[in-house]
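USER:
I wish I could look at a protein chain and see how it folds. I am handing you a single protein, as its sequence and its fold in token form. As I understand it, each token names a local backbone shape. I hope you can help me see how the letters and the tokens relate. The protein I mean follows directly.
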Amino acid sequence: MFKRIFPHPLLSLLLVIVWTMLVNKVTLGNLILGVIIGFALPIMTAAYWPGRPEIKHPFKSVGYILIVMWDIVVANVQVALIILFKRHRNIRSHWIVVPLELTTPEAITVLAGTITMTPGTVTALLSADGGSLLVHCLHTDDPEAVIHEIKTRYEARLKEIFA
């Protein structure tokens, strides 16, 4: 019964928040319209989400988000230092193939997005079999260390969240 009324409760909440931010004014009418949109859209689109992933540990996802936000701040500083103080000939950019243990498309998408959001790295390609990502690093002396960091810092946590 609950799943029929709220097929995607987090999406409903997110829609209400986004609607309130878009209208840029918190009034009773705007909140009511946001709640209507938050209820109606997930119900209307539920048929298009037949095999949606289950997040088994939502609190671990909060920790993951905090780690990613911290890594984005740190990587911004690192990239700024590379750009400002490293000579072009001393920058060692690499293409790295990151083998994946993740199997669900949603988890792989989150991992690829995380890598891309972190300055200095960009996910360029997912292999045809979904078993690896091609990642470009702006600067690294040790490509294996970058692979290890991606797998331990991000992929392992995503396996816990989506497992």
